[in-house]
Amino acid sequence: MKILIVDDIHEVLLEKLDLSNILYDYQPDIKREEAEQLIPQYEGLIIRSKFQVDQKFIDLAPQLQLIGRAGAGMDNIDEEYATAKGITLISANEGNRDAVGEHMIGMLLNLMNNLNRGDSEIRQGEWLREENRGFELMGRTVALIGYGNNGQAMAKKLSGFGVKILAYDKYKTGFSDEYATEASMEEIVKQADVLSFHIPLTRETKGLVDDEYLFHFRKPLFFLMGARGGIVNIPSVLKYLDNGKILGAAFDVLPVEKFPALSHQDWYLNLISRDNVLLSPHVAGWTFESYYKLSAILADKITETLNKN
Protein backbone atom coordinates (compact mmCIF):
# COMPACT_ATOMS: atom_id res chain seq x y z
CA MET A 1 0.00 0.00 0.00
CA LYS A 2 1.10 3.52 -0.78
CA ILE A 3 -0.41 6.39 1.22
CA LEU A 4 -0.83 10.05 0.31
CA ILE A 5 -0.53 12.35 3.35
CA VAL A 6 -2.16 15.71 2.59
CA ASP A 7 -1.97 17.47 5.96
CA ASP A 8 0.60 18.56 8.51
CA ILE A 9 1.23 15.72 10.96
CA HIS A 10 3.81 14.98 13.66
CA GLU A 11 6.95 13.31 12.37
CA VAL A 12 6.31 10.32 14.64
CA LEU A 13 3.72 9.09 12.14
CA LEU A 14 6.30 9.07 9.37
CA GLU A 15 8.81 7.31 11.62
CA LYS A 16 6.32 4.59 12.49
CA LEU A 17 5.30 4.08 8.87
CA ASP A 18 8.98 3.80 7.94
CA LEU A 19 9.55 1.15 10.61
CA SER A 20 6.64 -0.84 9.20
CA ASN A 21 7.89 -0.42 5.61
CA ILE A 22 4.70 1.35 4.59
CA LEU A 23 5.21 3.60 1.57
CA TYR A 24 3.92 7.17 1.66
CA ASP A 25 4.22 10.59 0.07
CA TYR A 26 4.12 13.42 2.60
CA GLN A 27 2.72 16.56 1.00
CA PRO A 28 1.39 18.79 3.81
CA ASP A 29 1.13 21.88 1.60
CA ILE A 30 -0.86 20.24 -1.18
CA LYS A 31 -4.15 21.84 -2.31
CA ARG A 32 -7.30 19.85 -2.90
CA GLU A 33 -7.07 20.31 -6.67
CA GLU A 34 -3.56 18.86 -6.64
CA ALA A 35 -4.64 16.00 -4.39
CA GLU A 36 -7.46 15.19 -6.82
CA GLN A 37 -4.88 14.76 -9.58
CA LEU A 38 -2.66 12.48 -7.47
CA ILE A 39 -5.10 10.35 -5.47
CA PRO A 40 -5.82 7.81 -8.27
CA GLN A 41 -2.27 6.51 -7.74
CA TYR A 42 -2.75 5.69 -4.04
CA GLU A 43 -4.38 3.02 -1.92
CA GLY A 44 -4.36 5.10 1.26
CA LEU A 45 -5.04 8.68 2.37
CA ILE A 46 -4.15 10.48 5.61
CA ILE A 47 -5.78 13.82 6.39
CA ARG A 48 -6.66 16.04 9.33
CA SER A 49 -9.14 18.77 8.34
CA LYS A 50 -7.72 20.29 5.17
CA PHE A 51 -10.72 19.54 2.96
CA GLN A 52 -13.85 17.42 2.66
CA VAL A 53 -13.24 13.88 1.50
CA ASP A 54 -16.60 13.74 -0.23
CA GLN A 55 -18.14 11.46 -2.83
CA LYS A 56 -16.50 13.39 -5.66
CA PHE A 57 -13.04 12.96 -4.16
CA ILE A 58 -13.57 9.30 -3.32
CA ASP A 59 -14.74 8.58 -6.88
CA LEU A 60 -11.39 9.89 -8.14
CA ALA A 61 -9.61 7.16 -6.17
CA PRO A 62 -10.56 3.73 -7.54
CA GLN A 63 -7.70 2.07 -5.64
CA LEU A 64 -8.43 3.69 -2.29
CA GLN A 65 -8.63 1.12 0.51
CA LEU A 66 -7.94 3.18 3.64
CA ILE A 67 -8.55 6.71 4.95
CA GLY A 68 -6.86 7.74 8.19
CA ARG A 69 -7.73 10.93 10.04
CA ALA A 70 -5.21 12.35 12.51
CA GLY A 71 -7.99 13.70 14.68
CA ALA A 72 -11.13 12.78 16.58
CA GLY A 73 -14.19 12.01 14.50
CA MET A 74 -14.69 11.65 10.76
CA ASP A 75 -16.99 14.59 10.08
CA ASN A 76 -14.98 15.85 7.08
CA ILE A 77 -15.23 12.42 5.45
CA ASP A 78 -18.32 10.95 3.80
CA GLU A 79 -18.31 7.88 6.05
CA GLU A 80 -21.39 6.28 4.57
CA TYR A 81 -20.16 6.48 1.00
CA ALA A 82 -16.61 5.46 1.86
CA THR A 83 -17.83 2.43 3.79
CA ALA A 84 -20.11 1.45 0.92
CA LYS A 85 -17.05 1.49 -1.34
CA GLY A 86 -15.26 -0.91 1.02
CA ILE A 87 -12.83 1.71 2.35
CA THR A 88 -11.50 1.22 5.88
CA LEU A 89 -11.82 4.35 8.02
CA ILE A 90 -9.45 4.98 10.93
CA SER A 91 -9.36 7.92 13.35
CA ALA A 92 -7.32 8.69 16.47
CA ASN A 93 -10.06 9.65 18.90
CA GLU A 94 -7.95 8.73 21.92
CA GLY A 95 -5.21 11.17 20.96
CA ASN A 96 -6.76 14.43 22.12
CA ARG A 97 -9.30 13.36 24.75
CA ASP A 98 -7.17 14.58 27.66
CA ALA A 99 -6.48 17.90 25.97
CA VAL A 100 -10.19 18.50 25.32
CA GLY A 101 -11.13 17.61 28.88
CA GLU A 102 -8.58 19.95 30.42
CA HIS A 103 -9.47 22.79 28.06
CA MET A 104 -13.21 22.60 28.64
CA ILE A 105 -12.80 22.43 32.42
CA GLY A 106 -10.55 25.47 32.17
CA MET A 107 -13.24 27.33 30.23
CA LEU A 108 -15.87 26.29 32.77
CA LEU A 109 -13.85 27.52 35.76
CA ASN A 110 -13.13 30.76 33.91
CA LEU A 111 -16.85 31.35 33.30
CA MET A 112 -17.92 30.45 36.82
CA ASN A 113 -15.38 32.84 38.34
CA ASN A 114 -15.56 35.73 35.83
CA LEU A 115 -11.81 35.51 35.20
CA ASN A 116 -11.76 37.19 31.80
CA ARG A 117 -14.07 39.98 32.93
CA GLY A 118 -12.13 40.63 36.12
CA ASP A 119 -8.83 40.69 34.26
CA SER A 120 -10.22 43.12 31.68
CA GLU A 121 -11.63 45.44 34.35
CA ILE A 122 -8.37 45.60 36.29
CA ARG A 123 -6.49 46.47 33.11
CA GLN A 124 -8.96 49.35 32.70
CA GLY A 125 -8.42 50.64 36.25
CA GLU A 126 -11.50 49.05 37.86
CA TRP A 127 -11.38 46.91 41.04
CA LEU A 128 -14.83 45.32 41.35
CA ARG A 129 -15.02 42.52 43.92
CA GLU A 130 -18.75 42.09 44.54
CA GLU A 131 -19.59 42.33 40.84
CA ASN A 132 -17.22 39.42 40.17
CA ARG A 133 -18.37 37.08 42.92
CA GLY A 134 -18.12 33.57 41.43
CA PHE A 135 -19.76 30.17 41.76
CA GLU A 136 -18.17 27.01 43.12
CA LEU A 137 -18.22 23.86 41.01
CA MET A 138 -18.28 21.54 44.02
CA GLY A 139 -21.69 20.02 44.72
CA ARG A 140 -23.11 20.73 41.28
CA THR A 141 -24.38 18.28 38.70
CA VAL A 142 -22.44 18.11 35.43
CA ALA A 143 -24.27 16.51 32.51
CA LEU A 144 -22.23 15.01 29.69
CA ILE A 145 -23.93 14.42 26.36
CA GLY A 146 -21.97 11.56 24.84
CA TYR A 147 -19.76 9.14 26.75
CA GLY A 148 -17.09 8.06 24.33
CA ASN A 149 -13.40 8.91 24.55
CA ASN A 150 -13.88 12.63 25.23
CA GLY A 151 -16.83 12.23 27.57
CA GLN A 152 -15.03 9.64 29.65
CA ALA A 153 -11.88 11.76 29.87
CA MET A 154 -13.94 14.76 30.95
CA ALA A 155 -15.68 12.72 33.65
CA LYS A 156 -12.39 11.40 35.01
CA LYS A 157 -10.88 14.87 35.21
CA LEU A 158 -13.99 16.30 36.89
CA SER A 159 -14.03 13.55 39.52
CA GLY A 160 -11.74 15.48 41.84
CA PHE A 161 -14.05 18.50 42.00
CA GLY A 162 -16.72 16.90 44.17
CA VAL A 163 -19.41 17.02 41.49
CA LYS A 164 -22.18 14.62 40.51
CA ILE A 165 -21.63 13.50 36.93
CA LEU A 166 -24.50 12.26 34.76
CA ALA A 167 -23.90 10.98 31.24
CA TYR A 168 -26.34 10.39 28.40
CA ASP A 169 -25.34 8.43 25.32
CA LYS A 170 -27.99 7.45 22.79
CA TYR A 171 -25.88 4.61 21.42
CA LYS A 172 -24.66 3.00 24.65
CA THR A 173 -26.24 1.37 27.67
CA GLY A 174 -24.89 -0.04 30.90
CA PHE A 175 -21.86 2.26 30.91
CA SER A 176 -21.99 3.68 34.45
CA ASP A 177 -18.54 3.64 36.01
CA GLU A 178 -16.65 5.12 38.94
CA TYR A 179 -16.72 8.57 37.33
CA ALA A 180 -20.19 8.97 35.80
CA THR A 181 -23.69 7.60 36.16
CA GLU A 182 -25.70 6.69 33.08
CA ALA A 183 -28.81 8.88 32.87
CA SER A 184 -31.82 9.47 30.66
CA MET A 185 -32.41 12.84 29.02
CA GLU A 186 -35.34 13.28 31.41
CA GLU A 187 -32.90 13.07 34.32
CA ILE A 188 -30.39 15.32 32.54
CA VAL A 189 -32.85 18.16 31.92
CA LYS A 190 -34.06 18.07 35.53
CA GLN A 191 -30.68 18.04 37.26
CA ALA A 192 -27.99 19.65 35.08
CA ASP A 193 -26.09 22.65 36.43
CA VAL A 194 -23.46 22.28 33.71
CA LEU A 195 -24.15 20.93 30.21
CA SER A 196 -21.17 19.68 28.17
CA PHE A 197 -21.25 18.07 24.72
CA HIS A 198 -19.04 15.17 23.61
CA ILE A 199 -20.78 13.87 20.48
CA PRO A 200 -19.75 13.77 16.81
CA LEU A 201 -21.33 15.87 14.08
CA THR A 202 -23.65 13.63 12.07
CA ARG A 203 -26.86 14.07 10.12
CA GLU A 204 -28.68 13.28 13.33
CA THR A 205 -26.80 15.73 15.56
CA LYS A 206 -26.56 18.66 13.12
CA GLY A 207 -28.50 21.55 14.64
CA LEU A 208 -29.48 19.38 17.63
CA VAL A 209 -29.14 22.16 20.20
CA ASP A 210 -31.92 24.58 19.31
CA ASP A 211 -34.72 26.45 21.10
CA GLU A 212 -36.73 23.28 21.68
CA TYR A 213 -33.74 21.34 23.03
CA LEU A 214 -32.77 24.03 25.54
CA PHE A 215 -36.35 24.80 26.59
CA HIS A 216 -36.65 21.58 28.60
CA PHE A 217 -33.80 22.26 31.04
CA ARG A 218 -35.17 23.13 34.47
CA LYS A 219 -32.24 24.89 36.15
CA PRO A 220 -29.99 27.78 35.10
CA LEU A 221 -26.81 26.20 33.74
CA PHE A 222 -23.38 26.73 32.27
CA PHE A 223 -23.12 25.61 28.64
CA LEU A 224 -19.96 24.04 27.16
CA MET A 225 -19.51 23.27 23.46
CA GLY A 226 -16.22 21.57 22.70
CA ALA A 227 -17.53 18.96 20.24
CA ARG A 228 -18.48 20.31 16.80
CA GLY A 229 -19.94 23.71 16.02
CA GLY A 230 -22.59 22.35 13.66
CA ILE A 231 -24.35 20.73 16.61
CA VAL A 232 -25.52 24.07 18.02
CA ASN A 233 -27.77 26.86 16.81
CA ILE A 234 -26.04 29.96 18.19
CA PRO A 235 -29.16 32.22 18.23
CA SER A 236 -30.83 29.67 20.52
CA VAL A 237 -27.98 29.92 23.03
CA LEU A 238 -28.14 33.72 22.82
CA LYS A 239 -31.87 33.58 23.54
CA TYR A 240 -31.34 31.55 26.71
CA LEU A 241 -28.44 33.73 27.79
CA ASP A 242 -30.87 36.65 27.57
CA ASN A 243 -33.54 35.00 29.72
CA GLY A 244 -31.05 33.68 32.29
CA LYS A 245 -31.50 29.98 31.68
CA ILE A 246 -27.88 29.87 30.48
CA LEU A 247 -25.60 31.61 33.00
CA GLY A 248 -22.54 31.45 30.78
CA ALA A 249 -21.47 29.74 27.58
CA ALA A 250 -18.07 28.51 26.38
CA PHE A 251 -17.40 27.64 22.75
CA ASP A 252 -14.21 26.10 21.44
CA VAL A 253 -16.06 25.34 18.20
CA LEU A 254 -18.61 27.33 16.19
CA PRO A 255 -20.91 26.49 13.26
CA VAL A 256 -18.74 28.76 11.10
CA GLU A 257 -15.05 29.05 11.83
CA LYS A 258 -12.26 31.30 10.56
CA PHE A 259 -12.44 34.81 9.20
CA PRO A 260 -13.84 36.55 7.23
CA ALA A 261 -16.74 34.05 7.10
CA LEU A 262 -17.28 34.16 10.88
CA SER A 263 -17.61 37.94 11.02
CA HIS A 264 -20.36 37.76 8.38
CA GLN A 265 -22.68 35.66 10.57
CA ASP A 266 -25.80 37.45 11.83
CA TRP A 267 -25.10 36.31 15.38
CA TYR A 268 -21.38 37.10 15.56
CA LEU A 269 -21.48 40.63 17.00
CA ASN A 270 -24.13 39.62 19.53
CA LEU A 271 -22.02 36.67 20.66
CA ILE A 272 -18.78 38.58 21.14
CA SER A 273 -20.48 41.47 22.95
CA ARG A 274 -21.18 39.33 26.05
CA ASP A 275 -18.82 39.00 29.00
CA ASN A 276 -20.45 35.70 30.00
CA VAL A 277 -19.41 34.07 26.72
CA LEU A 278 -15.93 32.60 26.35
CA LEU A 279 -14.46 31.68 22.96
CA SER A 280 -11.37 29.81 21.77
CA PRO A 281 -10.35 29.05 18.16
CA HIS A 282 -10.98 25.27 17.99
CA VAL A 283 -7.84 24.46 19.95
CA ALA A 284 -9.21 22.36 22.83
CA GLY A 285 -7.80 19.19 21.30
CA TRP A 286 -4.70 20.79 19.80
CA THR A 287 -1.96 20.81 22.41
CA PHE A 288 1.71 20.06 21.85
CA GLU A 289 1.10 16.68 23.46
CA SER A 290 -2.02 15.82 21.45
CA TYR A 291 -0.23 16.75 18.21
CA TYR A 292 2.15 13.88 18.95
CA LYS A 293 -0.44 11.45 20.29
CA LEU A 294 -2.87 11.88 17.37
CA SER A 295 -0.17 10.96 14.87
CA ALA A 296 1.33 8.15 16.96
CA ILE A 297 -2.02 6.50 17.61
CA LEU A 298 -3.10 6.78 13.98
CA ALA A 299 0.16 5.24 12.77
CA ASP A 300 -0.21 2.32 15.20
CA LYS A 301 -3.80 1.71 14.10
CA ILE A 302 -2.87 1.81 10.40
CA THR A 303 0.01 -0.61 10.95
CA GLU A 304 -2.20 -2.98 12.93
CA THR A 305 -4.92 -2.86 10.26
CA LEU A 306 -2.52 -3.56 7.40
CA ASN A 307 -0.83 -6.39 9.29
CA LYS A 308 -4.20 -8.10 9.65
CA ASN A 309 -4.80 -8.06 5.91
From TrEMBL:
One of its GO terms (molecular function) is oxidoreductase activity, acting on the CH-OH group of donors, NAD or NADP as acceptor. The keyword Coiled coil does not apply. InterPro entries: D-2-hydroxyacid_DH, D-isomer_DH_CS, D-isomer_DH_NAD-bd, NAD(P)-bd_dom_sf. Keywords: NAD, Oxidoreductase. This is D-3-phosphoglycerate dehydrogenase. Residues 105-284 form the D-isomer specific 2-hydroxyacid dehydrogenase NAD-binding domain. Belongs to the D-isomer specific 2-hydroxyacid dehydrogenase family. The keyword NAD applies.
